[in-house]
């Protein structure tokens, strides 16, 4: 039915990176947001596609809740989260009548919207499109990978927390990547330890070691450990620019190095 | 069944099989014949199976990673400490089945004589196996768990769910619809990023007429093991679960602090309640479990509803 894929709305997007995890609540949206902010600070134009239809977190993290989505000839115009228009965002969150409205859809309807998000959003010229996903290995992930495949994504960042329960789920996500031919750019371990602001004791709140174990099991690069930092959580709550405001935070070096790694992957793929 | 047209009106719709977008769909004839509109016979079969199950509790959250499986497991452990109480724990997180690990089970289904577990995790031959299934296939698995597992005489069936408001949740509610679910326990963490998803879950419960037993706020506060001072790692910037529950007039069952031992016990597959009996988190869990038991005791299954159908 379809002829050769027309580039269409993704014609101006240079690199696509997916952020995945088998496990919920490990920080996919956090990493997607901070990656976008870090890439912006490196002078890149970034788009974020939030395909978590049941729990769309990104609008709040970039202080874009309640914004309206407009139409143009090529489809939906993504929402710009800043004056300079360096970060644009599309999320089902913008299409809901109220923020508490639940998207209670079965798989086929979710697939249809995700295909639309990929084909019908007028992204324009972007250096990077970061695709944030919900946890799991199901409809949303298959729909996103299938829809993006013709555009040769750079690969996936896979996020875990240190504990074995998380590693147990994320191993399955790595299998998903292998089976769908999605290259794993690297594993990120989030919530790695917490330094008490009162006495500076570091506690492994969610156990330790999982990220490196996972990376070595799967034979993929380990990109670093991001510690727990209430300033980071608060920045995300309030839609602030953590990368700009907290360069001295213990979470900053790892987040920055993840962005560096993504950028270093990119030139190798220009063809 | 997996290649559904974009404009699919839904198998239960009056337009099923007849709409313009139905042309070319492999299920068109089936839908047009009205088969999709008839209630699934499994619902009655499950109602029969569930007659020996006294109380059914769903553990839900719109948000991932807030501690649903951790809570489900410890609810099960706590209830099963009374050896006269039969407890079953059903894990319907098909993609990310954490319960076997948290309960310390490799393939066997009984933790104790009175605590049994079922999960798709038991059906996977390797820890790397991914369950890459679309919605309809996941629904089929959930139907099988509910209909084909011999639950026996059970006082409490706890159903652990994945995050979200999608196939798994709709299927669990649909298949159990004739069997009376006591209610849902909704798990959250204090920050707004969680609460905004949890409000959606609460809306889901209202939409499908699922009673809400109450909300549990997990990871409330972190107590440093060295200096014992408290820090809020996940700050309740909009008032946490307390304010949300007041606004929505839903009971707050309790707040559980972040104790690093919880994660460790889960990794080892042991009951945290046994590992750390004096932790403030254990006290919190026990008080919440008691409130849930009280709710179930005060709201016995209404047999008379099933007689008219």
Automatic annotation (TrEMBL), chain A:
What is the predominant subcellular site recorded for this chain?
cytoplasm
- Enumerate the GO terms in the molecular function aspect: 4 iron, 4 sulfur cluster binding; ATP binding; ATP-dependent FeS chaperone activity; metal ion binding
Write down how the cofactor binds this protein.
Binds 4 [4Fe-4S] clusters per heterotetramer. Contains two stable clusters in the N-termini of NUBP1 and two labile, bridging clusters between subunits of the NUBP1-NUBP2 heterotetramer.
Q: Is Cell membrane a UniProt keyword of this protein?
A: no
Instruction: List the GO biological process terms.
Output: iron-sulfur cluster assembly
State where ATP binds: 22-29
Q: Which PROSITE patterns match?
A: MRP (PS01215)
Where [4Fe-4S] cluster binds, per the record, is at 196, 199
InterPro entries from the entry?
A: Mrp-like_CS, Mrp/NBP35_ATP-bd, NUBP2/Cfd1_eukaryotes, P-loop_NTPase, YlxH/NBP35
Location of the protein in the cell: Cytoplasm, Cytoskeleton, Cilium axoneme; Cytoplasm, Cytoskeleton, Microtubule organizing center, Centrosome, Centriole; Nucleus; Cytoplasm, Cytoskeleton, Microtubule organizing center, Centrosome
Q: Which cofactor is essential here?
A: [4Fe-4S] cluster
Pfam families in the record = ParA
Q: Which GO terms describe its cellular component?
A: axoneme; centriole; centrosome; cytosol; nucleus
Q: Provide the alphabetized UniProt keywords.
A: 4Fe-4S, ATP-binding, Cytoplasm, Cytoskeleton, Iron, Iron-sulfur, Metal-binding, Nucleotide-binding, Nucleus
Q: How does it assemble?
A: Heterotetramer of 2 NUBP1 and 2 NUBP2 chains. Interacts with KIFC1. Interacts with NUBP1.
Q: Which family, according to UniProt?
A: Belongs to the Mrp/NBP35 ATP-binding proteins family. NUBP2/CFD1 subfamily.
Q: What does this protein do?
A: Component of the cytosolic iron-sulfur (Fe/S) protein assembly (CIA) machinery. Required for maturation of extramitochondrial Fe-S proteins. The NUBP1-NUBP2 heterotetramer forms a Fe-S scaffold complex, mediating the de novo assembly of an Fe-S cluster and its transfer to target apoproteins. Negatively regulates cilium formation and structure.
What name is this protein filed under?
Answer: Cytosolic Fe-S cluster assembly factor NUBP2
Give the species.
Answer: Neomonachus schauinslandi
Taxonomic placement? Eukaryota, Metazoa, Chordata, Craniata, Vertebrata
UniProtKB/TrEMBL annotation, chain B:
Q: A GO BP term, please?
A: iron-sulfur cluster assembly
GO terms for cellular component:
cytosol; nucleus
Q: Where, in this chain's numbering, is [4Fe-4S] cluster 1 bound?
A: 8, 22, 25, 31
What Gene3D superfamilies does the record tag this protein with? Answer: P-loop containing nucleotide triphosphate hydrolases (3.40.50.300)
Which cofactors are required for activity? Answer: [4Fe-4S] cluster
The record's free-text note on cofactor binding: Binds 4 [4Fe-4S] clusters per heterotetramer. Contains two stable clusters in the N-termini of NUBP1 and two labile, bridging clusters between subunits of the NUBP1-NUBP2 heterotetramer.
The superkingdom of the source organism is Eukaryota
Give a Pfam family name: ParA
Give the protein's biological function. Answer: Component of the cytosolic iron-sulfur (Fe/S) protein assembly (CIA) machinery. Required for maturation of extramitochondrial Fe-S proteins. The NUBP1-NUBP2 heterotetramer forms a Fe-S scaffold complex, mediating the de novo assembly of an Fe-S cluster and its transfer to target apoproteins. Implicated in the regulation of centrosome duplication. Negatively regulates cilium formation and structure.
Entry protein name: Cytosolic Fe-S cluster assembly factor NUBP1
- Point out the gene that encodes the protein: NUBP1
